[in-house]
Amino acid sequence: xxxxxxxxxxxxxxxxxxxxxxxxxxxxxxxxxxxxxxxxxxxxxxxxxxxxxxxxxxxxxxxxxxxxxxxxxxxxxxxxxxxxxxxxxxxxxxxxxxxxxxxxxxxxxxxxxxxxxxxxxxxxxxxxxxxxxxxxxxxxxxxxxxxxxxxxxxxxxxxxxxxxxxxxxxxxxxxxxxxxxxxxxxxxxxxxxxxxxxxxxxxxxxxxxxxxxxxxxxxxxxxxxxxxxxxxxxxxxxxxxxxxxxxxxxxxxxxxxxxxxxxxxxxxxxxxxxxxxxxxxxxxxxxxxxxxxxxxxxxxxxxxxxxxxxxxxxxxxxxxxxxxxxxxxxxxxxxxxxxxxxxxxxxxxxxxxxxxxxxxxxxxxxxxxxxxxxxxxxxxxxxxxxxxxxxxxxxxxxxxxxxxxxxxxxxxxxxxxxxxxxxxxxxxxxxxxxxxxxx
Amino acid sequence: xxxxxxxxxxxxxxxxxxxxxxxxxxxxxxxxxxxxxxxxxxxxxxxxxxxxxxxxxxxxxxxxxxxxxxxxxxxxxxxxxxxxxxxxxxxxxxxxxxxxxxxxxxxxxxxxxxxxxxxxxxxxxxxxxxxxxxxxxxxxxxxxxxxxxxxxxxxxxxxxxxxxxxxxxxxxxxxxxxxxxxxxxxxxxxxxxxxxxxxxxxxxxxxxxxxxxxxxxxxxxxxxxxxxxxxxxxxxxxxxxxxxxxxxxxxxxxxxxxxxxx
Lengths: 439, 262
Ligand SMILES: Cc1cc2nc3c(=O)[nH]c(=O)nc-3n(C[C@H](O)[C@H](O)[C@H](O)COP(=O)(O)OP(=O)(O)OC[C@H]3O[C@@H](n4cnc5c(N)ncnc54)[C@H](O)[C@@H]3O)c2cc1C
Known about the structure:
The structure holds two protein chains of two kinds.
Chain A: H1 3-18, H2 25-28, E1 43-47, H3 51-63, E2 68-72, E3 78-79, H4 84-88, E4 98-99, H5 102-106, E5 111-113, E6 117-121, E7 126-129, E8 134-136, E9 139-142, E10 146-148, H6 160-163, H7 172-183, E11 189-194, H8 204-219, E12 224-229, H9 237-248, E13 252-255, E14 263-267, E15 272-275, E16 280-282, E17 285-288, E18 292-294, H10 296-300, E19 310-313, E20 318-319, E21 325-327, E22 332-333, H11 341-360, E23 368-378, E24 381-391, E25 397-399, E26 405-406, H12 413-435
Parallel strand pairs in A: 1-2, 1-9, 2-5, 9-21, 11-12, 11-17, 12-13, 19-22
Antiparallel strand pairs in A: 3-4, 6-7, 7-8, 10-18, 14-15, 15-16, 19-20, 23-24, 24-25, 24-26
Helix pairs in contact in A: 3-11
Chain B: H1 2-22, H2 34-37, E1 49-52, E2 56-57, E3 63-69, E4 79-86, E5 93-99, E6 104-112, E7 118-126, E8 131-140, E9 158-163, E10 174-181, E11 202-209, E12 212-219, E13 228-233, E14 239-247, E15 252-259
Bound molecules: flavin-adenine dinucleotide.
């Protein structure tokens, strides 16, 4: 049942109660029946084998192995953004952030097709692949992550990203940025253009700045980190800025939106940027994190709104716009939950439960979610922010009052070291839960 | 009897349902909102004023807002002001844009404070008293990964910034961006010791072309810290543009730029 219908059901209930005519209800709710393909427990196609999609595929199979589940993902190897900042710092290899789909195929019986999903026909319930094949679905899950708004910053397009990497999807871009940092002469400036909200991983840019400062302090001690930001506030700001002082002195400089931090123009070949009020900065290594939107397949499926993101019914993560299409992860509007891998994983489970239930013709309980974002200031200095989320009376996601919080200010070095160890523990646990990778 | 009932009830229910579907989720609230009502004379037009805000904002302390007049004015009439109101902030006023003469265009952007999820209303008024209204709902959530830092409460005006395009053309809209550093302390916020921090606002920013006031932005508690205004001018004469900010203590700061057209 779509949110539209839900909303009206609620309204109808209220109205009918008010009118003293509750007896009308049975007449009205006959529209809730679900159509399932003949013979099977239902066919589910999942697009995207990242945090949200791989989790959803696995948990649908765990919920009901008789459901036919196909995962569509172009790559055979998935590299996580989490811990890719450690790769940039030379503290980890790409191998240690790579995952594959063997467990999903061999243990859970998910059919994995390595292709790009190109189009959705929500009426015929079909998905067209880059291979020319068409898949039929009863329920579709989209977890395509993000795409970039090329040219939203003048001069920053796909070609420019080959010179001034974003490295905001892990893989070749991570390696490109790593190589540039390695090749940079000591005394250089690494400049990062950080985006306005909403974007993938709110603390990510600041963790990256930290890890690059760490690399500089070990290998290029005269080099600097300059963050040009399109925001005035950022995630865990107080903790980051005091940790930067403590660990790196004045190696890292942050320029806020109100201090002319917003980059409006990029010359990737010259590694130059111009900010809103005309300041020109020249970088030795330039990293532009551009504005983002839901992965393109979401738009093709007609589930995005004018913001470029996907509004969902938070009880089930079914699209508010198109029936039988569930969307999870970074592509959705799930604020106050952040666009994190942890959140995508949790949402994947909620969608999986809702899909299993809807194919069985039952309903699910109200979900709740947890999220923790660890960020590393250096390999042995971790900070975190945690939250628990639930639905309020209007079926909107809220942070449970009094839940979570951030790491304390002024904590002892041992506390920070422990949090860095927890970050590794978190990474290992979520990798195993999502892809079955044993680290 | 029962038979008759159900036969009537089904269409009735369908009717009710149709009615509910056709109801907008949120009734337009400018009709019920006293601070806007106090400004309205007659019936404002609902087409002609475009108000843009994000559907969801993860940082209520600086929500981008744009407003543009696309309606038509009678011969000789001219837009006088666009005022922006918040329906659920402690104070209704967000910002006023005042067009002192027709060289300033009604195409503006700024950043605003929204305490919580609410509707934002824009009201445009012409010199002849015609009015236009626009309204948008913004859902404000502070993301779990976003924690705010505190601004310094008692700072004065600093670092006025003006950005002009490199090439200015006669008769073409010229986009001008302005920014000034200032905490815009609301007077509603408590310090760590529990005492209210005194109000400290910039009152306005006036733009003059060769000593003639052309445009003015009036700031309120609903204007974000470090007031930002993006505006448009249209002129066919070279002029000296002076931007003057005045704060509540009558302190002033001025920046000048030459408008030289090609
Ligand atoms: C530097 C950095 C650090 C981060 N650190 C953390 C952290 O410490 N903790 C944390 O929780 N989160 C972190 N994140 C955020 C995390 O990476 C994302 O929130 C997470 O990847 C979102 O999961 P997703 O399933 O929405 O998208 P993704 O994980 O990106 O998965 C999307 C998948 O869909 C596939 N795909 C896209 N379009 C199609 C299509 N049309 N057809 C088929 N397949 C398609 C892609 O190939 C991709 O494999 C970090 C992000 C960055 C950039």
